[in-house]
Amino acid sequence: MSCGNPHETDCSEVLDHLYEYLDSEMSEGDRHRLEEHFGECHPCLEKYGLEQAVKKLVKRCCGHDDVPGDLRSKVLTRIELIRAGEIGPVTEPAVEGAPAPAAAEPDTSRPQTTS
């Protein structure tokens, strides 16, 4: 994503490191660069606000649940792979042992044409 305006720090770089910023997992210098960008880029500031709100909601609703230690790492790795376009969003069942979604039935409402 890019707002189309030139910035010292590119929008895609800011968004790639947004969760590190939200989780205070970056150096002060990097935090300062992102804060400067938010000050001049409304779309990135909006995305930051949205992700911050989602994070607060998740913490409020799920903050007391025990999470397996490697889950965060797996989730972050999957997010990075999706952002990089190496994989698509999750299509397998969310819970191990849950039945897989049914395969899509062919659309028989329209006549098939052959070439």
TrEMBL record:
Biased composition (Low complexity): 90-106
Domain of life: Bacteria
Pfam families: zf-HC2
Disordered, as annotated region: 90-115
Annotated Putative zinc-finger domain residues: 11-44
Protein name: Mycothiol system anti-sigma-R factor
Highest classification ranks of the organism: Bacteria, Bacillati, Actinomycetota, Actinomycetes, Kitasatosporales
